[in-house]
Amino acid sequence: MDEFKYKLIERAREEGFVAAGVCSPDAVPDFAQRFAVFLRSGYHGEMNWLERRVEWRSDPKTLWREVRSIVMLAESYTPASNPLRKLNWRDRGVISVYAQNKDYHAIVKKRLKRLAHWMIREAGGEVKVFVDTAPVPEKALGQAAGLGWQGKHTNLLSRSLGNWFFLGSIFSTLELSSNLPEISHCGSCKACLDICPTKAFIAPYQLDARRCISYLTIEHRGPVEKKLRPLLGNRIYGCDDCLAVCPWNKFAVKARDVRFSARSDLEAPRLADLLKLTDSSFREMFSGSPIKRIGRDRFVRNVLYAVGNSAKSDLSLSVKVLIEDSNPVVAEAANWALEQLKAREK
Predict the structure, then answer these.
(1) What's the pLDDT score for residue 1?
(2) H/E stretch holding 6
(3) What pLDDT, in 10s, does the model give residues 136-177?
(4) Exposed e or buried b per residue across 21-50, where buried means at least 16 C-beta atoms within 10 angstroms of its C-beta
């Protein structure tokens, strides 16, 4: 099987993946305990779906009893420029790099399926593929397969890839030899911890999602706490600060798929334009985008917080229209934004 594994890794690169590795399904025995502590502490906030199928997340064999090997794959989405520079463009919204074009789930899954079908043709067996949509501990398995290590910001990073990459997995009934697990190379660096605007990292390698801007702008449904709103800045979907500041990104690999390159209208959209979004125009603008999942109301709520932080008084008229919005969370965000803009005028 070692010869087949070599061919598999080569084939993965031909398919567009930048790295591949193999681990056994029982390679992350400590994950269950760490995940249980995370849930007991309430750090997952409103992400109640994390509480379901805990046993699947803790043990891949519970998810699929027949699995014998797990192939972990990385796909680069490295941005063309440093996203931190956009944080000073107060009349513009900042969207997380991964969401500035097509939804990566569909793109990576198709690539995984092609590779999985090749595995069956070459060596037989059965397979299942996963891309962040099933209860799979992908980051822990990625480290076990040697792709990288979970850094202090809790994301996977690599000495040869940086941290701008997606993960996908192929569960197989084939017995493949495992790669050596990667160890941490963060050293004394804490750049990712220091840059976090909301201080969401309670300790190295520990994240309280309830304070994370990605969680607040994507997963959190109601109003964001007023004390946190100024810290959002102009981030309207996700946050890349802890990823962008990582020094290992000097080795980041250029994204191979053009569908991960930023759309011109999403690279730094004007807040004034986004305030005008209706349900239908929102769905049209974000068709095929991961942003579509959160819906118009949550997205416009985020835009209003950014407007409130912008000091752009010329946006006041557009904000006033939204005070009468049918969604109470949007209406409340509009009132808050208007108060902030008026306060800056004094």
Answers:
(1) 59
(2) helix 2-15
(3) 999 999 999 999 999 999 999 999 999 999 999 999 999 999
(4) bbbbbebbeebeeebeebeeeebbbeeeeb
Residue 15 — left, alpha, or beta (φ > 0 → left; ψ -120 to 50 → alpha)? alpha
Query: Which residue is it, tokens 């017995």?
Result: 175
Tokens for 62, please give them. 């519970």
pLDDT at 54 over 90: no
Rounded distance, CA 218 to CA 104, Å?
16
Question: Which one of the listed residues 59, 91, 132, 273 is annotated catalytic?
Answer: 132
297 in catalytic set: no
* Alpha helices for the chain (secondary structure H): 2-15, 31-40, 54-58, 60-63, 104-123, 138-144, 191-195, 213-214, 229-232, 241-244, 271-274, 279-285, 295-308, 316-322, 328-345
CA atoms within 13 A of residue 278's CA, in its CB half-sphere: 2
- The pLDDT of residue 346: 62
- CA-based torsion, 140, 218, 243, 36: positive or negative: negative
What's the pLDDT at 130?
96
Helices and strands (H, E) in the chain, number of each type: 15, 10
Count how many residues are written for the chain.
346
| pLDDT of residue 51 exceeding 90 | no
Percent with pLDDT over 70 in the chain: 99
User: Is residue 56 within 8 Å of 168, Cβ to Cβ?
Assistant: no
- On whether the pTM is more than 0.85, the answer is yes
- The rounded distance, in Å, linking the Cα atoms of 72 and 56 is 17
How many Cβ atoms from other residues are within 10 Å of residue 157's Cβ?
A: 29
Residue 104 is classified by DSSP as H
